[in-house]
Amino acid sequence: MTLDQITIAPIFPMWLIFLLFVFGAASAILQFFLIRRRLGHSKALIISILRLGAILFLISFALNPSLVVKKEHRTSPTVAILLDTSLSMGQPGQTGKASRLDEARAFLMEGQNPLLKSLSEKYEVKVFELGESLKAVEVDELARLKPGGVKGDLNAALQELRGKNTLAVLLSDGHLKWDSGQSNLPLFTVPMGNPIEYKDLLIKTVKAPTLAFRGREVVIDVTIKNYGYTGLTLPVLLKDGIKLLTAKNTHIQVSPGEVTTSLSFIPDEVGQKNLSISIPQQFGESLVANNSVNLSIKVVRDKIRVLMVSGNPSMNYRFMRMALKSDPSVDLLSFVILRTPSDILNVPTQELSLIPFPVETLFSKEIKNFDLLIFDNVSYSLYLSPHHLESIRDFVREGGGFAAIGGPHLLDEGRYAVTPIGEMLPVRSVGKEDYRRDSPTRVRLSQAGTVHPLTRLSLDVAGDGSDLLSFWQDMPPLDGINLLEAKSSSAVLLETVDGTPWPILTVSNYGKGRVLALATDYSWKWYMGKVARGKGNMAYLKLVDRMVRWLTKDPGLDPVQMTLPENPGSIGKETEIRIKLREGDLAPNLRSPVLFSVFSPEGLKIESKLKPTEQPSEYLGSFLPQKGGIYKIKVETQAGHLEEFMVIAGPLESLDAAPDHEQLKMISSSTGGKYLSNADNLLREIEGDTQKRGSRFIEEKRSSVWATPYVMAIVLGLLVSEWYFRRRWGLV
Amino acid sequence: MISRREFLSLTLGLTAGLLFPGPKLSLSASSPQFFFAQLKYRGGEWDPNPDFVEPMIEELELRTSIDGMKERRVTTLSDPDLFFYPFLYIAGKYEFDPFTPQEREMLRRFLTYGGFLFAEDTVGAKGFGFDQAFRREMKQVLPDHELKRLPADHSVYQSFYIIGNIGGRQKVNSYLEGMTIDGWTPVIYSQNDLSGAWEKDRFGKWVHECVPGGEFQRSAAFKMGINIIVYSLTSDYKKDVIHHPFIMRRQSL
User: Fold this and answer.
1) Sign of the C-alpha dihedral, residues A189, A195, A197, A201?
2) Of A313, A354, A319, nearest to B229 (Cα)?
3) Of A314, A352, A532, the CB nearest to B161
4) Which residues have CB under 8 Å from B146's CB, separation 6+?
């Protein structure tokens, strides 16, 4: 069958074409009257008609007429079968014995008249797997398909199938990405699973901060969804490893429905908290893996609480106090021993402003509320009993910081050696005369000091272009120093220059805490020495700041910075971690190699990659998580190491696998298809639909009229004929 | 012609210099955490009470946990070691020559960045030579700050003793004055001649009588001196929350 018609596509506006037409007709009529007297009426009429014809033909070029030829073709109908293979299709189907995917396969291939076979006899049938993407599969591959991956994108799939197929059949439980909208391709949906019999409890969402402050309440909102558990009261548990932090009973009122509850806890120590939220398994639950969720919260300090005890009023105390007080993030409580028991008391006590030193309260009860303890030239034996010293040691062992500032009483004339304080200090006495105030001495940076964050403060504070080594050597000499030796487990960062290199600044770890010994009571001269040279006070303030932050494990001081991806990682997708090293002020020969390791939730080291980025001292680490859980990421350099934790959601975590047949009904109705669960009915409906629509398509051909030589011949013929008659009748 | 005042100044200065020469210590020699560094200036009389240091340090060591040096250091505003002196002391009776711009800049930097200056007018009356010259100079050194009467709850009155009576050789003022920068008072000024009340001769006798309060006034002067020294080493430590209610209770007794 052929449908022909002429269409026009004017190349000028129609009014202009009309004007040209009127002008051409008028000129032909005028010519007729002009030549009629010479040639007579009939001859003039012939010539004028010929010219008018040629002009009109030429003007009608502007209308650009085209000849449209339509041809209808009949085809054999094509049916696309979409088999949903997303993760939820692995859940129990109608019978509860086989999975939904198994039942979908059986629906297509089993029974007296297998649907796939019946369809193939009448139509061209193509089978597709609808998982993360649409993928064509052969019939014999169907048995090998496994459920997995995220929800399929049905809109994208229909877009791809449109025009190539007459209709599509979808076998799914309804867990699909679908934005309601029109589709040219009718979709017949076949539901899998049984929404009435389906029973499950799942933790649908968890809203928790990624950052929390120690000592401040953290609130976590947990939304629980249920299918088939009306009237149930169940506990929601928040755990840190196996330790239960809190639990809250939640009552379920409607099914299916959601209920949100809030859990709260107060983190008591800084660091990464790897937590889990869980609900106990209930009888008849289809899926248990979605009853728990892992989360990781970083706990930091809001303020660093420092307890400083000074053995006597001194310049060292005043300048250190000034530095600590100038830092708004430090909450300082200090005690200065203004008089010793041997000092005379020549006035009534009410004339003294001295308060009793609350040693018992501080060192037995309150010590755990501090982050850092500073002993500034304190003779412990006068004030502290052995159990106070043990309490201090336990405080550090559990993660606290301890700084011993020098002076004649730093080691209490050797008495510290046999105490818990002596055990944890990074230095030991070399004899009873452990303090010297005879000749001032300068300090220099040790090899360890060049890379340690505590002493690496040249470029940002010196501001005079000096390098790190000369920056420290230019510091004013110290009048008094303690004569100590460093323990093998500690690192000497600063040492004296003249004669025996006595350690001045020594650090070490003790248990979970950190310890520092500054073996001088003249560090304040580093402050005034810089001021005297007109270089401000930043060097000293920064040194004290770094001492505090290093001792309290401030992550901002870590030589390694790690940036985890904003969105949580998922299984099978490469996860990238950005790593930045604070080595910008180090000479290239002091820069250290970087080791990047990733450990699975079971603690096993897994394959990972590390490559430098275009930015200096920046790297990109990556790994491919194979399962859900909390992964440990570790970066090691010579200057230090850093560990972070990352939650990779498990495949079934938060999975809501309840069949959503309402969505299937909506999809079929909006695409012009039908929602059917019976194979025979489906076959009948497909037949009816293909007949109604008819399997045809129309081929359309369009050709320009002026492109044909006949039209051009007519125009030329008219013009030549006119010229011939004009010449014959003596007008040319 | 030399004036009478200049003659007296010169004689006293020479006598002090010959009999009790100040130690010429430099930074290369170590020193205890606390010592007096007395400022020597041009004109006037820079050393009106040359023997105040030893009695004061003796009392300081006897009553507090502070170890001090019984010898003072004499310095000038052009001394580069000025910044390492914990307690700068200036005293006098008469007007002195203006500081040079370099000296003023040095003192400004010293006081702005944590140094401490205790100044004393020892003449025993208000508004005379040293008082006028010192106020003039401090206006130049710290033009954005004023020498003001320190309030009764200032830390200097509570740093060791709870002070109600300033004491001194003369009872000129019942208060101290000071210049405060961001909560810290780097300049404290007295007109009661505290050091005159502290001073003993070589035989251990008081050099001056304290009028009109006698020995009670002298005792108060020592307490005030100790408080000023403790303040210079602890700043506003006594303003910490933990001390406040305790001091309030003691003051109400």
Assistant:
1) positive
2) A313
3) A352
4) B179
pLDDT greater at residue B172 or residue A726: B172
* Closest Cα in chain A, distance from residue B77 (Å): 12
Band of pLDDT at residue B252, cut at 50, 70 and 90: low
**Terminal CA-to-CA distance of chain A, rounded, Å?**
52
Contact criterion met (CB below 8 Å) for A473 and A526: no
Helix axes A538-551, A315-325, angle to 10 degrees: 80
Closest CA to B65 of A389, A379, A360, A518: A379
Nearest by CB to residue A315, choosing from B28, B233, B238, is: B233
Q: Which positions ≥6 away from A310 have C-beta within 8 Å?
A: A316, A317, A334, A335, A336, A337, A376, A377, A378
Pick the closest to residue B53 from B195, B208, B210 (CA basis): B195
Residue A478's pLDDT is 92
Token pair for A582: 């604070």
**Residue ranges of domains in chain B:** 4-252
> Domains along chain A?
2-73+700-728 (no CATH), 76-197+657-693 (3.40.50.410), 200-300 (2.60.40.10), 304-342+371-553 (3.40.50.880), 558-649 (2.60.40.10)
* Pairwise CA distance, residues A540 & A319, whole Å: 9
Q: What is the H or E stretch that residue A66 is in?
A: strand A65-74
Ranges of residues in chain A with a pLDDT under 50 are 1-3, 463, 465, 585, 587-588
Letter for the amino acid at A514? R
Q: Which candidate from B80, B161, B230 shows the least CB-CB separation from A313?
A: B230
Cα–Cα dist A492/A486, whole Å: 7
Please state whether A148 falls in left (phi above 0), alpha (psi between -120 and 50) or beta: left
Taking an 8 Å cut-off on Cβ atoms, the answer to whether A480 and B30 are in contact is yes
**Chain A contact set for B253 (CB, 8 A):** 350
pLDDT 10s digits, A114-139: 888 888 888 888 999 998 788 898 88
Roughly what angle, to the nearest 10 degrees, separates helices A709-728 and A41-60?
150
How far B118 CA lies from chain A's nearest CA (Å)? 16
In this model, does residue B216 exceed pLDDT 90? yes
Interchain contact, A333 vs B243, CB within 8 Å? no
Homologous superfamily assigned to B4-252: Domain of unknown function DUF4159 (3.40.50.12140)
C-alpha A108/C-alpha A83 separation (Å) is 10
Structure confidence at residue A639 (pLDDT): 67
What are the two backbone dihedrals, phi and then psi, of residue A44, each rounded to the nearest 5 degrees? Answer: -60, -35
Chain B residues in contact with A315 by the CB 8 A cut-off are 33-34, 86, 233
Least confident stretch, A312-316, B14-18, B69-73, B210-214: B14-18
Q: What is the torsional sign of CA B155, B161, B164, B167? A: negative
The C-alpha of A442 sits at a distance from chain B's nearest C-alpha, in angstroms, of 11
The shortest C-alpha distance from A339 to chain B (Å) reads 4
Nearest CA in chain A to B59: A344
CB atoms A528 and B250 under 8 Å: no
What would the two tokens of residue A171 be? Answer: 């076998």
Residue numbers in A near B64 (CB within 8 A): 312-313, 338-339, 343
pLDDT, residue A244, reads 92
Mutate: best of B25, B27, B28, B33, partner A, most A CBs <10 A: B33
**Minimal CA separation from A505 to chain B, in Å:** 20
Rounded Cα distance between B221 and B171, Å, is 10
Q: Is the pTM of this model over 0.80?
A: no
A345 to chain B: which residues are within 8 Å by CB?
63
